[in-house]
Amino acid sequence: QVQLVESGGGLVQPGGSLRLSCAASGSVFSIYAMAWYRQAPEKQRELVARIASYGTTNYAESVKGRFTISRDNAKKTVYLQMNSLKPEDTAVYYCNRWGTEDWGQGTQVTVSS
């Protein structure tokens, strides 16, 4: 089982940027695809971005061109760089080992003026 710990959330003004980090431990990291999800109040959890073990990325249409997912296998960490943030990006962001029930505790992102 993998333990995942997110960090980097916070309050930011519209148009601002944040970088989320997800540190993994407890297993081999590099062979797994990783993903970021988010859940806004009263909405279902949705996939934001995914990165394969070999680096191929996929994004939700709503974040394409604004968010970038990346990974550092040596550090067992996956990142989500979020630029041009909008109020509708406000949510709790979760890290996930793709295809498993390994989730982090979540980190709150609030975009507001």
What does this structure look like?
The protein has strands at 3-7, 10-12, 18-25, 34-39, 46-51, 57-59, 67-72, 77-82, 91-97, 107-111. The protein has 113 residues and is an all-beta fold. A hairpin with a 6-residue loop joins β4 and β5.
Short description:
This protein is mainly beta. The chain is 0% helix and 49% strand. The strands form two sheets. Strands 2-10-9-4-5-6 form a six-stranded mixed beta sheet, with no helix packed on it. Strands 1-3-8-7 form a four-stranded antiparallel beta sheet, with no helix packed on it.
Uncertain runs: none
Share in helix:
under 10%
Shape verdict: globular
What is the H-and-E element order? EEEEEEEEEE
Largest sheet: 6 strands, mixed
Gyration radius, to the nearest Å? 13 Å
Biggest sheet strand line-up = 2-10-9-4-5-6
C-alpha termini separation: 40 Å
Return the average pLDDT rounded to an integer: 95
Name the beta content range.
over 45%
Number of helices: 0
Structural class by helix and strand composition: mainly beta
Number of DSSP strands? Answer: 10
Structural topology:
Layout: E1 3-7, E2 10-12, E3 18-25, E4 34-39, E5 46-51, E6 57-59, E7 67-72, E8 77-82, E9 91-97, E10 107-111
Core attributes:
single chain; six-stranded mixed β-sheet; 113 residues; four-stranded antiparallel β-sheet; mainly beta; 0% helix; globular
